[in-house]
Amino acid sequence: MADRWDELEERLRAVELRLGIGATDRPPVPDPETFWVLDGLRARGGEGVVFAGDVHTAAGPVAWQYGLPADALLDTDEVDVEGAAGRLAALGHPVRLRLLLAVLRGATGPAELAEEPGIGTSGQIYHHIRTLTAAGWLRASGRGQVQVPAERVVPLLVALATTR
Fold first, then answer.
1. What is the pLDDT of residues 17-66, one digit of tens each?
2. CA distance 60 to 71
3. Domains of the chain (ranges plus CATH)?
């Protein structure tokens, strides 16, 4: 009978977890399918942060994954705090985000970008392109053309996903 009771409690906690309700002093037991990415991370030897994506952009498909040990992200001696802040700050402007999303959708030059609503004048576009290029979110892909580097597509979308 005790085993049956424990099983029922475990199932109830899992349901409450999925519904976002219930309070318990014990961590809930997740559905085995819930943490399939974390299971892979743990199988590789530890804790950390992983993100991955499979995205089709105007420039073509991008399949990308990245992972870092948690210690490497939490240790201020290992993290380039100033560089990270600069890269994040470059994303902190609404026009720059619009510009990056327009490039992902297929706009590659200032003339095309100027047609996008809310992007601004050609002078403003060049200023934002310089800022995003310096931060690594854009790179030149030909004469007067830009693209989001493949290794930045998924991190950009992850950054946007964290705002939801």
1. 666 666 555 555 656 677 788 888 888 877 888 888 999 988 889 998 88
2. 34
3. 2-34 (no CATH), 48-161 (1.10.10.10)
How far apart CA 99 and CA 125 sit, in angstroms, is: 8
Dist. CA 120–CA 164, nearest whole Å? 26
- The reported pTM is 0.72
Q: Tell me the per-residue pLDDT of 59-101, one tens digit each, with 9 for 90 and over.
A: 889 998 888 888 888 887 777 888 989 999 999 999 999 999 9
Q: Which residues pair with 55 in a beta bridge?
A: 62
Is the four-CA dihedral 56, 60, 63, 66 of positive or negative sign? negative
Strand, helix or coil at 142?
strand
Q: What is the DSSP string of 51-62?
A: EEEEEEETTEEE
Nearest to 161 by CA among 51, 84, 38: 51
Helix (H, G, I), strand (E, B) or coil at 48: strand
84: its two tokens: 């990270």
